[in-house]
Amino acid sequence: MSFKEFSEKQDVILSPKRYFIDALGAMAQGLFASLLIGTILDTIGVYCNVPVLVTIGAYAKAVMGPAMAIAIGRALNAPPLVLFSLAAVGWAACAEGGAGGPLAVYFIALIACELGKLVSKVTPVDILVTPLVTILSGGLLSIFTAPYIGKAASYAGNLIMWATELRPFLMGMLVALIVGVALTLPISSAAICAALGLTGLAGGAALAGCCANMIGFAVISFRENRWGGLVSQGLGTSMLQMGNIVKNPRIWIPAIVASLVNGPVATCIFRLEMNGAAVSSGMGTCGLVGQIGVITGWSSDIAAGLKASVTAMDWIGLIAVSFIVPAVVSLLVASLLRNIGWIEEDDLKLPQ
Questions:
Q1: Distance between CA atoms of residues 212 and 235, nearest Å
Q2: Contact partners, residue 286, CB within 8 Å, separation at least 6
Q3: 73 close to 83: Cβ distance less than 8 angstroms
Q4: Residue 274: φ, ψ to 5°
Q5: How much is the pTM?
Q6: What one-character-per-residue DSSP string does 37-97 give?
Q7: Digit-coded pLDDT (tens) for 292-346
Q8: Please, are residues 195 and 153 in contact by the beta-carbon 8 Å criterion?
């Protein structure tokens, strides 16, 4: 049996979809189920003076690395012993990766998982060999490569954030466009933002792009999908439209234009910053997680003495960028495209 045949038998298949779509999406779910939920609980606990929620939130945030690694393993169809061993790998990669821990977890968990799968159920002492290979490979990679992966991610994220501060109009458009498109594509904008540690003004631009796609598709498809479509896309994901986009790519134009407008509105007019968890920058209005992230950031800034208070303009900016600008711009552009026949009846109809 050749190595290729053996690896396929062990379900180790080099697949861009599996590695860059399935694994990234799963990584975002792991982040959501740990860091993001922990942050929300912590925020509620602080605002409502419920210490037990703060404590539970801290526990949830602490297992961010293991949650991401296990989620990635599940996306790669890891056998049980590999899957459970990835908890240690995720913890090590996240700890060694520092600020760029999520990206380190992504790469290292992928490699450790596939190595573990290669030896899974091959020997009579599988219960020893499989965890040993998975944890040892992941641990060594964490110690010797995670710090460099983390630094690279931090440098890239810091460069984007620096450029956004320096050129808020141009970078506001660019970041909003790229992250908004990533949110609608079958990849994870949340995982990208988390991996790069995208916060501050750049995080606000990323949020603006995501909201433009989610709210944009939700409102322009209301005549086809009614209230169910409004909720599923506006509070769920614009990814639901991918099948329709493949059939008629022009239906994406309203959301893209809304992203290009909404980004500079966030960065130049309202100076909207995302100083909560970086993963929130790529969530848009999904479960209102992006908005909760901004509010969490306000609280953190006040506690750190960086912000005196939350003003009326802060709230107006958050509401405008999250809902009003995306809805208005998308509806105007969609109306024009419907009039010239670029968007036709039922082009935006979601499958039942």
A1: 12
A2: 210, 214, 235, 236, 237
A3: yes
A4: -100, 100
A5: 0.80
A6: HHHHHHHHHHHHT-HHHHHHHHHHHHTHHHHHHHHHHHHTT--HHHHHHHHHHHHHHHHHH
A7: 999 989 988 998 898 989 999 999 999 999 999 999 999 999 999 999 999 998 8
A8: yes
